[in-house]
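Annex B. Sample input.
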Amino acid sequence: MPFFENNFVRLHYYQYGIGKQILIAFHGFGMRGNQFAKLEDALGNKYTIYSFDLFFHGQTQLSDDTVNTIRKGFDTSQIANAITEFLTSINQPESPFSLLSYSIGAKLALALLVQMPQRVKKAYFIAADGFETNTVLKICSSRYINNWLLKLVYHPKTLHYILKKLYQLGYIDEALHRILSFEFSTQAYRMVSYKTITYYSRLRFNKIQLAQIINKNHIETHFFFGKYDKLFPAGIAYRFGKLLRTPHIHIFNQGHELINDELNNYLKTIL
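Annex B, continued. Sample output.
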Protein backbone atom coordinates (compact mmCIF):
# COMPACT_ATOMS: atom_id res chain seq x y z
CA MET A 1 0.00 0.00 0.00
CA PRO A 2 1.47 3.38 -1.00
CA PHE A 3 2.54 6.02 1.49
CA PHE A 4 4.06 9.47 1.29
CA GLU A 5 5.87 10.90 4.31
CA ASN A 6 7.39 14.23 5.33
CA ASN A 7 8.09 15.85 8.72
CA PHE A 8 4.41 16.76 9.15
CA VAL A 9 2.50 13.62 8.21
CA ARG A 10 2.67 10.08 6.87
CA LEU A 11 -0.06 9.99 4.21
CA HIS A 12 -1.59 6.73 3.10
CA TYR A 13 -3.37 6.83 -0.23
CA TYR A 14 -5.21 4.76 -2.83
CA GLN A 15 -4.67 5.11 -6.55
CA TYR A 16 -7.47 4.65 -9.09
CA GLY A 17 -7.93 5.27 -12.79
CA ILE A 18 -5.65 5.49 -15.80
CA GLY A 19 -6.36 9.04 -17.00
CA LYS A 20 -3.66 11.54 -17.91
CA GLN A 21 -4.93 14.25 -15.57
CA ILE A 22 -4.30 14.21 -11.81
CA LEU A 23 -7.19 14.23 -9.34
CA ILE A 24 -6.39 14.73 -5.64
CA ALA A 25 -9.21 13.35 -3.47
CA PHE A 26 -10.22 13.67 0.20
CA HIS A 27 -12.99 11.52 1.69
CA GLY A 28 -15.55 12.17 4.41
CA PHE A 29 -15.64 11.68 8.18
CA GLY A 30 -15.45 8.05 9.28
CA MET A 31 -14.49 6.84 5.80
CA ARG A 32 -11.21 5.92 4.12
CA GLY A 33 -9.48 6.91 0.91
CA ASN A 34 -11.08 3.93 -0.82
CA GLN A 35 -14.46 5.69 -0.57
CA PHE A 36 -13.90 7.07 -4.07
CA ALA A 37 -13.45 3.62 -5.62
CA LYS A 38 -17.20 3.93 -6.22
CA LEU A 39 -16.52 6.76 -8.72
CA GLU A 40 -13.60 5.20 -10.60
CA ASP A 41 -15.90 4.04 -13.39
CA ALA A 42 -16.93 7.64 -14.13
CA LEU A 43 -13.63 9.39 -13.46
CA GLY A 44 -10.95 6.81 -14.14
CA ASN A 45 -10.58 7.30 -17.89
CA LYS A 46 -10.02 11.03 -17.53
CA TYR A 47 -8.08 11.06 -14.26
CA THR A 48 -5.54 9.19 -12.24
CA ILE A 49 -7.02 9.56 -8.76
CA TYR A 50 -4.86 9.82 -5.64
CA SER A 51 -7.27 9.44 -2.74
CA PHE A 52 -5.76 10.07 0.69
CA ASP A 53 -6.79 8.81 4.11
CA LEU A 54 -7.58 11.91 6.16
CA PHE A 55 -5.85 12.76 9.42
CA PHE A 56 -6.85 10.23 12.14
CA HIS A 57 -8.42 7.96 9.53
CA GLY A 58 -7.16 4.77 7.97
CA GLN A 59 -3.37 4.54 7.98
CA THR A 60 -2.50 8.24 7.75
CA GLN A 61 -0.54 9.42 10.80
CA LEU A 62 0.47 12.88 11.95
CA SER A 63 4.02 13.22 13.23
CA ASP A 64 2.58 14.84 16.37
CA ASP A 65 -1.00 13.99 17.33
CA THR A 66 -0.94 14.97 20.99
CA VAL A 67 -4.04 16.66 22.41
CA ASN A 68 -2.27 20.03 22.69
CA THR A 69 -1.30 19.92 19.01
CA ILE A 70 -4.79 18.83 18.01
CA ARG A 71 -6.33 21.76 19.87
CA LYS A 72 -4.10 24.22 18.03
CA GLY A 73 -5.30 22.88 14.69
CA PHE A 74 -3.29 23.19 11.50
CA ASP A 75 -2.84 25.84 8.84
CA THR A 76 -3.38 25.48 5.13
CA SER A 77 0.32 25.59 4.29
CA GLN A 78 0.98 22.26 6.03
CA ILE A 79 -1.25 20.17 3.78
CA ALA A 80 -0.26 22.23 0.74
CA ASN A 81 3.43 21.53 1.38
CA ALA A 82 2.71 17.83 1.84
CA ILE A 83 0.80 17.56 -1.45
CA THR A 84 3.44 19.62 -3.28
CA GLU A 85 6.13 17.23 -2.06
CA PHE A 86 3.92 14.25 -2.91
CA LEU A 87 3.47 15.45 -6.51
CA THR A 88 7.22 15.86 -6.80
CA SER A 89 7.69 12.31 -5.50
CA ILE A 90 5.54 10.93 -8.35
CA ASN A 91 7.46 12.99 -10.92
CA GLN A 92 4.73 15.62 -11.33
CA PRO A 93 6.45 18.62 -9.70
CA GLU A 94 4.78 21.30 -11.86
CA SER A 95 1.69 19.52 -13.13
CA PRO A 96 -1.76 21.02 -12.66
CA PHE A 97 -4.35 18.92 -10.85
CA SER A 98 -8.04 18.84 -10.00
CA LEU A 99 -9.73 18.33 -6.63
CA LEU A 100 -12.39 15.89 -5.49
CA SER A 101 -13.76 16.04 -1.96
CA TYR A 102 -16.67 14.91 0.17
CA SER A 103 -18.02 16.42 3.40
CA ILE A 104 -15.21 17.28 5.85
CA GLY A 105 -12.63 16.36 3.20
CA ALA A 106 -13.61 19.56 1.39
CA LYS A 107 -11.68 21.52 4.01
CA LEU A 108 -8.43 19.98 2.79
CA ALA A 109 -9.43 20.62 -0.82
CA LEU A 110 -10.12 24.27 0.06
CA ALA A 111 -6.74 24.48 1.80
CA LEU A 112 -5.04 23.46 -1.46
CA LEU A 113 -7.23 25.81 -3.47
CA VAL A 114 -6.20 28.74 -1.25
CA GLN A 115 -2.52 27.86 -1.15
CA MET A 116 -1.88 26.86 -4.77
CA PRO A 117 -4.81 28.06 -6.95
CA GLN A 118 -2.64 28.47 -10.04
CA ARG A 119 -2.28 24.69 -10.22
CA VAL A 120 -5.95 23.76 -9.70
CA LYS A 121 -7.89 23.09 -12.93
CA LYS A 122 -11.24 21.88 -11.60
CA ALA A 123 -12.82 21.26 -8.21
CA TYR A 124 -15.62 18.82 -7.40
CA PHE A 125 -17.22 19.47 -4.00
CA ILE A 126 -19.69 16.85 -2.74
CA ALA A 127 -21.87 17.67 0.32
CA ALA A 128 -19.04 20.01 1.21
CA ASP A 129 -17.95 21.35 4.57
CA GLY A 130 -15.88 24.56 4.75
CA PHE A 131 -17.94 27.06 2.77
CA GLU A 132 -20.12 27.92 5.73
CA THR A 133 -19.43 27.31 9.41
CA ASN A 134 -21.55 24.47 10.74
CA THR A 135 -23.26 25.60 13.96
CA VAL A 136 -22.58 22.38 15.86
CA LEU A 137 -18.91 22.29 14.85
CA LYS A 138 -18.49 25.98 15.72
CA ILE A 139 -19.85 25.33 19.23
CA CYS A 140 -17.54 22.33 19.59
CA SER A 141 -14.48 24.50 18.85
CA SER A 142 -14.95 26.71 21.93
CA ARG A 143 -12.50 25.89 24.71
CA TYR A 144 -15.13 25.10 27.33
CA ILE A 145 -17.15 22.81 25.06
CA ASN A 146 -13.97 21.23 23.71
CA ASN A 147 -12.86 20.28 27.23
CA TRP A 148 -16.32 18.82 27.82
CA LEU A 149 -16.12 16.83 24.58
CA LEU A 150 -12.84 15.28 25.68
CA LYS A 151 -14.57 14.05 28.84
CA LEU A 152 -17.35 12.54 26.72
CA VAL A 153 -14.78 10.23 25.14
CA TYR A 154 -14.99 8.27 28.38
CA HIS A 155 -18.80 8.55 28.79
CA PRO A 156 -20.41 6.77 25.81
CA LYS A 157 -24.00 6.77 27.15
CA THR A 158 -24.06 10.57 27.34
CA LEU A 159 -22.55 10.87 23.88
CA HIS A 160 -25.09 8.54 22.30
CA TYR A 161 -27.90 10.42 24.04
CA ILE A 162 -26.64 13.67 22.46
CA LEU A 163 -26.47 11.98 19.04
CA LYS A 164 -30.04 10.78 19.42
CA LYS A 165 -31.22 14.30 20.27
CA LEU A 166 -29.34 15.84 17.33
CA TYR A 167 -31.08 13.34 15.06
CA GLN A 168 -34.50 14.00 16.58
CA LEU A 169 -34.03 17.76 16.26
CA GLY A 170 -33.03 17.47 12.62
CA TYR A 171 -29.39 18.59 12.87
CA ILE A 172 -28.21 15.29 11.38
CA ASP A 173 -30.00 12.85 9.08
CA GLU A 174 -30.46 9.10 9.48
CA ALA A 175 -27.37 8.22 7.44
CA LEU A 176 -25.08 10.51 9.43
CA HIS A 177 -26.60 9.32 12.71
CA ARG A 178 -25.75 5.77 11.71
CA ILE A 179 -22.17 6.70 10.77
CA LEU A 180 -21.56 8.68 13.97
CA SER A 181 -23.08 5.95 16.16
CA PHE A 182 -20.53 3.54 14.73
CA GLU A 183 -17.64 6.00 15.00
CA PHE A 184 -18.48 6.61 18.67
CA SER A 185 -18.92 2.90 19.47
CA THR A 186 -15.57 2.35 21.24
CA GLN A 187 -13.27 4.53 23.31
CA ALA A 188 -10.56 4.40 20.64
CA TYR A 189 -13.05 5.45 17.95
CA ARG A 190 -14.39 8.22 20.17
CA MET A 191 -10.89 9.62 20.65
CA VAL A 192 -10.37 9.61 16.88
CA SER A 193 -13.69 11.45 16.47
CA TYR A 194 -12.73 14.00 19.12
CA LYS A 195 -9.39 14.67 17.42
CA THR A 196 -11.03 15.01 14.00
CA ILE A 197 -13.75 17.40 15.15
CA THR A 198 -11.26 19.51 17.11
CA TYR A 199 -8.47 19.60 14.53
CA TYR A 200 -10.71 20.53 11.61
CA SER A 201 -12.85 23.03 13.52
CA ARG A 202 -9.88 25.43 13.57
CA LEU A 203 -9.69 25.45 9.78
CA ARG A 204 -12.00 28.18 8.45
CA PHE A 205 -12.27 30.05 5.18
CA ASN A 206 -13.57 33.41 4.03
CA LYS A 207 -16.26 32.95 1.36
CA ILE A 208 -15.46 36.19 -0.42
CA GLN A 209 -11.78 35.30 -0.62
CA LEU A 210 -12.57 31.79 -1.87
CA ALA A 211 -14.83 33.15 -4.60
CA GLN A 212 -12.21 35.68 -5.68
CA ILE A 213 -9.58 32.95 -5.94
CA ILE A 214 -11.86 30.71 -8.01
CA ASN A 215 -12.90 33.54 -10.32
CA LYS A 216 -9.41 34.96 -10.77
CA ASN A 217 -7.89 31.59 -11.61
CA HIS A 218 -10.82 30.41 -13.75
CA ILE A 219 -11.22 27.21 -11.74
CA GLU A 220 -14.18 25.20 -13.00
CA THR A 221 -16.09 24.40 -9.83
CA HIS A 222 -18.86 21.83 -9.40
CA PHE A 223 -21.10 21.45 -6.33
CA PHE A 224 -23.04 18.25 -5.61
CA PHE A 225 -25.50 18.45 -2.71
CA GLY A 226 -28.37 16.40 -1.38
CA LYS A 227 -31.77 18.07 -1.25
CA TYR A 228 -32.44 16.42 2.12
CA ASP A 229 -28.99 16.83 3.66
CA LYS A 230 -29.43 18.28 7.16
CA LEU A 231 -25.71 18.66 7.94
CA PHE A 232 -24.62 20.56 4.81
CA PRO A 233 -27.80 21.65 3.01
CA ALA A 234 -28.01 22.51 -0.67
CA GLY A 235 -28.47 26.19 0.15
CA ILE A 236 -24.72 26.36 0.74
CA ALA A 237 -24.13 25.78 -2.97
CA TYR A 238 -26.71 28.34 -4.05
CA ARG A 239 -25.43 31.05 -1.70
CA PHE A 240 -21.79 30.52 -2.65
CA GLY A 241 -22.67 30.11 -6.31
CA LYS A 242 -23.92 33.71 -6.40
CA LEU A 243 -20.32 34.82 -5.83
CA LEU A 244 -18.96 32.89 -8.81
CA ARG A 245 -18.94 33.82 -12.47
CA THR A 246 -19.90 30.33 -13.67
CA PRO A 247 -21.10 28.06 -10.86
CA HIS A 248 -22.07 24.46 -11.64
CA ILE A 249 -24.62 23.27 -9.09
CA HIS A 250 -26.04 19.73 -9.07
CA ILE A 251 -28.77 18.79 -6.58
CA PHE A 252 -29.85 15.21 -5.85
CA ASN A 253 -33.00 13.93 -4.18
CA GLN A 254 -30.92 12.39 -1.41
CA GLY A 255 -29.45 13.16 2.00
CA HIS A 256 -25.81 13.44 3.01
CA GLU A 257 -24.62 10.11 1.60
CA LEU A 258 -23.90 10.94 -2.03
CA ILE A 259 -20.96 8.71 -2.98
CA ASN A 260 -23.06 6.10 -4.74
CA ASP A 261 -24.05 4.64 -8.11
CA GLU A 262 -26.38 7.54 -8.89
CA LEU A 263 -23.56 10.06 -8.57
CA ASN A 264 -21.22 7.80 -10.55
CA ASN A 265 -23.70 7.57 -13.43
CA TYR A 266 -24.38 11.31 -13.29
CA LEU A 267 -20.67 12.13 -13.46
CA LYS A 268 -20.45 10.07 -16.63
CA THR A 269 -22.98 12.36 -18.28
CA ILE A 270 -21.28 15.64 -17.32
CA LEU A 271 -17.77 14.43 -18.14
